Structure formats: C-alpha cells, structure tokens
Amino acid sequence: MVTLSVVTPMYNERAAVDHFVARLRPVLDDLKVTYEVVAVDDGSADGTVSRLLELRAAWPRLRVVKLRRNVGHQSALAAGLRAAAGDYVVSIDADLQDPPEVIGEMLAKATAEDLDVVYGVRSDRSTDTVFKRRTAGAYYWLMRKLVGPWVSGQAGDFRLMSRSVVDTLNQLPEQRPVYRLVVPSLGFPAGEVTYVRAERVAGETKYPLHKMIKLSLDSVTSFSAAPLKLATWLGLITFVVCLGLVVSGLAAWAFGVVVPGWTSLYIAMLLLGAVQLICLGMLGEYVGRIYAATQNRPQYLIAFDTGAEVPVFTSGR
Ligand code: UDP
Ligand code: MG
Question: Which residues form a coiled coil (predicted)?
C-alpha cells in the first residue's frame, strides 16, 4: 500500500487552518492510502500552532512541525519535505487555493503512468488579481527563458513528488531553493493535472510585493548568470558610445567649436552613475548569496515536531 505525505507550509494562517483541515481530511480518508499531513508552521505569530495542536488532538495524522521563526515559504517547504516520510509527497498551500480534491487525481496519475512528478497546473486564475496574474505571467515567461522550456508556465508549488524526487531535493545543499524551478530541472518523468485556482478561503496573502521580488531574485540568481553578462554588455555599449562622444568632442575642440558643456556633462554623469550602480547591485545579489552559502548557517531551526512522538504510518485510521 502506498503511503502519502501532504506537506503544507503555514504562516499566520489561523483564519484558514480550520477550513483547510475540514476539507482535506475527508479527501484523504477517501483515498484509501496511509497518510500523514505535515503542517509546517513558519514562525506564525497569530496562534496558528496552538490551533493546529488542538486539531491534532482529534486527528493524530496531522503532524505539526514548528519552526523557530519565519524563514519564508520555500524554506518552510524544505523543512516539510525533510520531515515527510511517504512514498509520495504532495505540497499544497494552506489557503485552499489549491483544491485538495486534486490530490487523488495526482496520485492516480502518478501510479498509473509511473511518473515521479505530477504538477498542478492552474488552468484558470481569474480569482487572482490582475496585478498577480501579470507579475506571475512575466515571472514564468522569464523563467522559461532563463531556466528552460520544461518550466511550466502555470505550475506553482502544488505538486506530487515520488520518494526519489524528495530524497534528491533533500540532499541539495541550496540555502534558498526555488522548488518550482529545481524540480523540473532534475528531469524526472513528469505529468500534469489542471485545476481552477480558487480564491483564498480566509485571511490575506502572505506574499506581499517584497516577498515576490525576493522569490524572483532567488529564481534568477539560482539558475542564471545572465544578469552578470548583461553588465558586461552594458559596459561595452556604454564604452562604444563614450568613444564616439570623445571623438566628436575632440573634433569640435580641434575646429574651435566650443561645446556648451553643463547639460551634456550632467546627463552623462547621471547615466553612467546609474549604469554602474545597477551593475554593482547585480553583482551584489550574487556575492551576497555566495556569502550566505559559505556561512552555511541552518536554513531553518525546528522548535518541535510532533511526528517524533507518535510513530507515523503505524496506527490505523
Ligand atoms: N507561507 C509561508 N511562509 C511565508 C509566506 C507564505 O509558509 O513566509 C505559506 C502560506 O501560509 C501559504 C503558502 O505559503 O500556505 C502560500 O502563500 P499565499 O497563499 O499567501 O501566497 P499567494 O497564494 O498569495 O501567492
Ligand atoms: Mg494563496
């Protein structure tokens, strides 16, 4: 009999967690598999953990892993993947935007077609805001260019993975993995199921703009050195333009034409300054990540894991 782990990172999801459990439990019970649900509390400050522990009293298959502080969605997911023990592992958001009913479809597809990964692909995002859809569209377009065409345009972190995929992921030494890019880049046999993205059941998005920007920077820097090459090209282009200006400036001087200087100097100075700062910033993004990698600090710290107390997959339903 296959065993299934459902991994859910949660950050301040007190308002959503009851809905989540109420909808997930019957779905999993109907699957007729042995399962565990690994809820990873990503340093919530709104009582998510105490509510999870209360819910666990009535549903021992709900395992609670509490992280010491907020480390972000992807790192919380990393903690969950390391804790998960199932033959198959599904990662799913806590806000019911990913419908739990699709898990059965994913599992059926994986076992029937012998697949290692089944992506949940959003066929309809009309419940997301225009801003979210546009930024997501731009993000996935860029990622397909930088990482490769195997990155799905509409697959987030709702996916099923086999034990071999999870073991491979768990061995990666990356400090800030972006799973939606890392998983397809491994090249395991993969399939897709489509679903309609629902509205968040309760609470607010936990992905404000600065977290979206951070995810995008992590995505680009972990897969591509293109921005560094862009700096080289920007430098070369600026150099050629400057050379032209130097020649024309010298010619004007030789013919005795006095160039009125202030405006041109001012513009050139600002432009060059901006180009230099942008390039320096790009370099900084990479150097900062190299620095973090050499420090090799823990990606997250676990405050407690209830899974350690109750043996997983031994008790009946
Ligand atoms: N999340 C997390 N840590 C964070 C931010 C988000 O664990 O720092 C979780 C969140 O609780 C949810 C999932 O990641 O289960 C996706 O977040 P959200 O639904 O807010 O993102 P959106 O759907 O708006 O992109
Ligand atoms: Mg969401």
Answer: none
